[in-house]
Amino acid sequence: MTTDTEMITARDISVLECLASYFLMNRRQIQALCYPKDHDGRITRRRLSAMCRDKYVKKLTMQVVNPRDGSLAPVYQLASRGRTFVAEHLKELRVMLKPLEVPQPQHLFHYLSVTDTHILLDQAIQVCDDVRLDGWFNEDEIVNYDEPDRSKQFKLETLVAESPRRTLCRPDAAFQLEYQQHRGVFYLEQDRDSYWHGQVAKRKTPGYVKLAEVNGHRKHFPETTIDRFTVLCVTPSNKRRDALREAFRGMEGKERWRFANYADFVDEPASFLRGPVWYPCDEGAEPVSLLK
Questions:
Q1: If residue 26 lies in a helix (H) or strand (E), which one and from where to where?
Q2: Which domain of life is it from (predicted)?
Q3: Hey, is 106 helix, strand or coil?
Q4: Does residue 8 register a pLDDT over 90?
Q5: pLDDT of residue 2
Q6: Residue 68: per-residue pLDDT
C-alpha cells in the first residue's frame, strides 16, 4: 500500500506548507516560491494537477480576470487531506483550524493581493536578522487557536460598538513584529482601487477608531508591548496612494494610518520594513520606515 509520504515529493510538501501559510495562491506565486527553476511553469502545473487529483489541494477559478495572466486563472488552496497532512508533518494543531472555504469567492483577486503582501513581508523578515514576525492572521483565520472551546474562538473581525451605531472593524490581515525588545501590532488594508477613495475612508476609519478606544489590538496580540497600533494600506499605484492619503486626512484616527505603493518594495523586500516608503496622511509629510 502506498503511503501519503510516498505519493508526494519534498517540493509538494513545500507547496502544502505555503498554502497553509498564505491561504490562497495562484500558480505564479507557487512557482516563484517552490519551483523557482521551472521557468515555463510546466512542472508547477503538473504537480499542482497531481495534488488536486489526490485531493491534497483544491482548485478554484477566479471570477475576475487576473490582468497579469490575461485570462481566468485558477487559484489554489488546501483541501482537507492536505491540511491534515501539513498539521501532522509540522506537528502544529493550529493548522487544523485553517479555513477550507472562501467566504467571498468574488474577491479572489483581493485575497491573492494579500498573499503578495504577506510573501513580501516574509521575504523582508528573512533579510532583516534583528526583526521577528510574531504572528500573522488573515481575516478568515481563528486568532486564539489554542482555545479549546469553539464558542470562545474569534477572528480578526471585531464588534467594537453596538450603539449609537453598530460598528465593526474588519482588517484584511494583522501581524506583530518584534524589534529591539518591543512587539508592535500592524493591521493590513489591501487596496485594489475598487471603490472611490472617499468611500473607503468613511467605511474604514470608524472601526479602527473604536478598536483603539478599547485597546482591541491587545485581544488579537496579547503579548504586544505598545499601546497603539498602525494600519498599513498597500495600494496598486502612487496615484491611488496619494488619493487615499488626501481622503483620510480629514478623518478621525488619521495618525494611525500609513500608505505605500506595492511597487515601492516589490523589487527590494527589505524596504517593506526599513525603507522610507510609508506615507502618513498629512500633506507634505515625508515617508517613513516601519522600524524606527
A1: strand 25-26
A2: Bacteria
A3: helix
A4: no
A5: 40
A6: 56
Any bridge partners for residue 68, and if so which? Answer: none
Q: What sections of 102-227 are H helices per DSSP?
A: 108-127, 197-213, 217-220
Question: How many residues make up the chain in this entry?
Answer: 292
pTM: predicted TM-score of the whole model, two decimal places = 0.92
How many of the other CB atoms lie within 10 Å of CB of 225? 12
The residues near 31 (Cβ < 8 Å, ≥ 6 apart) are: 38, 41, 44
Q: What span, in angstroms and rounded, lies between the C-alpha atoms of 112 and 101?
A: 15
Helix (H, G, I), strand (E, B) or coil at 283: coil
Distance CA 257, CA 269 (A): 20
Helix (H) or strand (E) holding 248: helix 238-248
Q: Would you state the cell numbers that stand for residue 98, as one nine-digit string? A: 485553517
Bridge-partner residues for 278, per DSSP? 288
Q: Which residues, 6 or more positions from 203, have their beta carbon under 8 angstroms from its beta carbon?
A: 195
- What integer best gives the mean pLDDT of the chain? 92
169 C-beta neighbours (distance < 10 Å), count: 23
pLDDT digits (tens, 9 = 90+) for 32-91: 999 999 989 999 999 999 999 999 999 998 755 555 555 568 999 999 999 999 999 999
Looking at residue 64, its pLDDT comes to: 55
Q: What is Dmax (Cα atoms) for the chain?
A: 67
37 residue type, one letter: K
The structural architecture, per CATH, of the domain 4-102 is: Orthogonal Bundle (1.10)
Domains of the chain, by residue range, sit at 4-102, 111-274
SS3 content of the chain, % helix, strand, coil (to 5): 40, 20, 40
